[in-house]
Design a protein that fits this description.
Blueprint (H helix, E strand, L loop, with lengths): L6 E6 L7 H11 L3 E6 L9 H8 L18 H7 L2 E7 L1 H9 L5 H8 L4 E5 L3 H5 L1 H12 L3 E2 L3 E4 L5 E5 L3 H18 L3 E6 L4 E4 L2 E3 L6 H12 L3 E6 L11 E5 L3 H12 L4 E4 L6 E3 L19 E3 L3 H7 L6 E8 L3 H11 L4 E6 L11 E8 L4 E8 H16 L2
Parallel strand pairs: 1-2, 1-3, 3-4, 4-5, 8-11, 8-13, 11-12, 13-16, 16-17
Antiparallel strand pairs: 6-7, 9-10, 14-15, 17-18, 18-19
Helix pairs in contact: 1-2, 1-8, 3-5, 4-7, 9-13
Length: 402
Amino acid sequence: MSLKGKKIILGVTGSIAAYKSALLTRLLIKEGAEVKIVMTPSASSFITPLTLATLSKNPVLINFEKNDAGEWNNHVELGLWGDLFIIAPASANTLSKCANGICDNLLIATYLSSRCPVMFSPAMDLDMYKHPSTTKNLETLKSFGNIIIPAGTGELASGLEGEGRMAEPEEIVEEVKTFFNDNLLLKGKKILITAGPTYEKIDPVRFIGNHSSGKMGYAIAEEFANRGAQVTLVSGPVNIKVEHKNITVTSIMTAVEMMDAVTKNADNSEILIFAAAVADYRPSSPANQKIKKEDSDPPKIELIQNPDIALSAGANKKESQYSLGFALETENELINAEKKLEKKNFNAIVLNSLNDQGAGFGHNTNKITIIGKNKKRSEFPLKDKKHLAIDIVNYVIDDFYK
């Protein structure tokens, strides 16, 4: 789709990445959007207002001052005008101010006055991006319903390699087009997602589990929520906090508890995503007290099979529902994934291999292949899991709705 007729406010902050705002403006205009730009005072040290005014064909606003017609720059009026507000680049300073309501320039005043959705495209050095205060501010902004376009990985202005690069203008434009297109498709849709491991009790202090961090499932949940869907996230024990208003988390510990939660919510969900790493077995008789170490032979633990949650959901799936599963394999990857696709009645399956460096449990990155019902394969290179979540959601939308 084009962006013809869409009204976009572009906020530019003080960052070396501000030069990318010129190309972003040009691309948005080329897609048919009308663009009005507001800059922080420090942003003009990196790119001139004249450049952006020429490209946008609109005056650039920087300060609370009168324009050429003798009228005050009205942040409220501008905030009401836009269909979408993009802050790109979003510096650590501006992220902090937006998250905490510190209104000391026209850009922040416009943000606080806006009634339209807001996208932030962070840009800063690696250590700044990873600092706990920046992480907290990004989580706060997401909890307000804002959309965060993940920073890219590569060479930074400091010469370091890592996360913190502002997304490329072409990527941001695709995000914008996807936003306007997919919000019509996903707004209010109910999505059920499982994530994380299950812990199967041996005794009060020990369990059978796995190394799943839940990062992939949580990233998918956030991406669906960012596009307007109502997400029920059934999660095993993980160290991830969710504050997005469109995500409801049901915390569980065991496979049986996850099975109950999925059964309760599956019928009312249009899309089912099975990203959890569910333990295949559990102890048949967990001890009520801690098992003591003895000088004799170690205790024997009898295991019984856990319910297969995805298999059960697949057997009861309606024609109007779509399901996507995950397969983490170590050998015969494609063959095993295709078998799982058929057995569990998935519409598609995401394959990742522990043999690929940087993929699988515990990493912030992953490398995947999505296999559809027709055995067609879509391969995605090693990426941050947040970026892969975008790819996975795009795949589901293209496969199910289009």
